[in-house]
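Agenda item 2: guanosine-5'-monophosphate complex prediction
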Amino acid sequence: MSKKEVRSGGILFIVSAPSGAGKTTLCRKAVDYFPDLRHSISYTTRSPREGEKNGVDYHFVSELIFQKMLDNSEFLEWARVHGNKYGTSVKDTQAILEKGLDIILDIDVQGAAQVKKKGMSAVFIFIFPPSLETTKERIRNRGKDSNEVILDRLETAKKEIKQAKKYDYFIINDNLDYAFERLKSIIIAERSKKERMLKKVKKLFDVIC
Ligand code: ADP
Ligand code: 5GP
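Presented output:
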């Protein structure tokens, strides 16, 4: 997809983090807090975890459907993570941005790199766990993954952290309240940038050219 294909009224926020760092928790809090921020619901070939709902947490689809979507260029980005495929719908993202709403994409480092490569205007946020040991504990306490899956996710976490320097903002999710304050601050700061405020301000004060 070219840069022109996703026309943005709203802001595209990309959030990546190693598994268990708390990005789902933080993104949910952000969407609950900001009425004009939407969460992108990805398509995945992964099976639902206990309590996950189709169309809410993910669109859970078969390999065949995912492949068809891929063949039809329906993904803004996609990646294979921990043996499953995940992708973001161009159509869904575009529909939200065109309404002037902001969107938050909780995607892995490979997907974020694809968005960056396309030259799209986006804000890249990386969330760190306080330590790898904490990550392990959090995934274990979440109680939805086997030991083998947890070890695989920890190995991937080390590789993902190496990609963090490509992001615009860092958040260490040690204390959840502090981490959320930072996420809120980033969103508010990005919304306050001169280039994003200019249109609004011009309506109020026509002296600004
Ligand atoms: P991710 O989406 O990055 O895999 P989750 O948001 O699912 O991570 O969080 C993993 C687990 O850690 C969840 O059980 C969540 O409630 C918990 N958690 C998230 N942030 C914190 C925090 N700051 N302190 C303690 N537990 C947390
Ligand atoms: P989980 O299976 O724990 O929900 O997610 C595993 C990983 O896949 C996480 O790093 C998450 O950010 C990533 N992920 C979820 N949806 C997408 C997506 O649409 N695209 C990409 N590239 N990664 C995704």
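Discussion summary: The chain is about 45% helix and 20% strand.
Owner for follow-up: CH.
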